[in-house]
Amino acid sequence: MTRTLLCFGDSNTHGSPPIVTRGEPYWRFDAHTRWTRVAAGLLPDWDIVEEGLPGRTAQFPDPVMGAHMDGRDGLKIALQSHGPIDALTIMLGTNDTKTRFGATPERITAGIAGLLDIATSLEVQQRHGGFRVLVICPPPVLEQGPIMSEFTGAREKSLQLPALYRALAEARSAGFLDAGSVIEVSPTDGIHFEPEAHRQLGEAVAEAVQRL
């Protein structure tokens, strides 16, 4: 029996490469590189649904990129667009550390809590016949590269997130994976993942999903 895994996140779930210069043409790592597809290759009995939106936050409408960056609305749409699903991964929080949001680590974690509230609501769980959630804490930000001005103060915040996410996941009976214990962000832009990091994360997520 084939099961379905919904991967919900931002540009690092979408497969965006590190930014070398601002304004460069859009492109995306191919299916052999993205961590979602790496995980799919290790989960032969699972269908993988990729729901990664560059710029997505856990809770904030973005004044620059648009109100649709608010992950709460995005998750509701995804959970009604796909299914039934058997597991959900949520990897968000990097964009919430942007300077313009002024969010504390606790506020960022509260955004993840809101997404868990949506995913574990009675209506949603009944719709899909029940599913487990894996909370993935993104690796810490490096304040360097062509978009560093958007992330002033972000590293300090992001370093506090793993412990907060872990405690939240335990309180909500969700699975937890600290991506920062497996990979690091690219030094090119301090935010996105290099191909090798995608491979390593895909392997770790596949293992974590099997544990669910």
Written account of the structure:
Pfam families: Lipase_GDSL_2 (PF13472). With about 210 residues, this protein is of the alpha/beta class. It has a single domain, classed as SGNH hydrolase (Rossmann fold). Helices cover about 40% and strands about 15% of the residues. The protein is built from seven helices and five strands, in the order βααβαβααβαβα. It has helices at about 10-15, 35-40, 70-80, 105-120, 120-130, 155-170, 195-210; strands spanning about 5-10, 45-50, 85-90, 130-135, 175-180. The chain has a five-stranded parallel sheet, sandwiched between helices. α6 (about 155-170) links the parallel β4 (about 130-135) and β5. α2 packs across α7 (about 195-210), α3 packs parallel to α4 (about 105-120) and α4 (about 105-120) runs parallel beside α6 (about 155-170). The longest helix has 18 residues, at about 155-170. The model has no long low-confidence stretch (mean pLDDT about 95).
Q: If you average the pLDDT, what whole number results?
A: 97
Q: What would you give as the CATH superfamily?
A: SGNH hydrolase
Strand content: 5-15%
User: What's the domain count?
Assistant: 1
- SSE-based structural type: alpha/beta
The helix fraction, in percent, is 25-40%
Overall, the morphology is globular
H/E series:
EHHEHEHHEHEH
Which CATH class applies here?
A: Alpha Beta
**Tally of alpha and pi helices:** 7
Descriptive key words:
5 strands, 212 residues, Rossmann fold, alpha/beta, 7 helices
What secondary-structure arrangement, pairings included, does this model have?
Layout: E1 3-9, H1 11-14, H2 35-42, E2 46-52, H3 71-81, E3 87-91, H4 105-119, H5 122-128, E4 132-137, H6 154-171, E5 175-178, H7 195-211
Parallel strand pairs: 1-2, 1-3, 3-4, 4-5
Pfam families: Lipase_GDSL_2
Organism: Rubellimicrobium rubrum
GO molecular function: hydrolase activity, acting on ester bonds
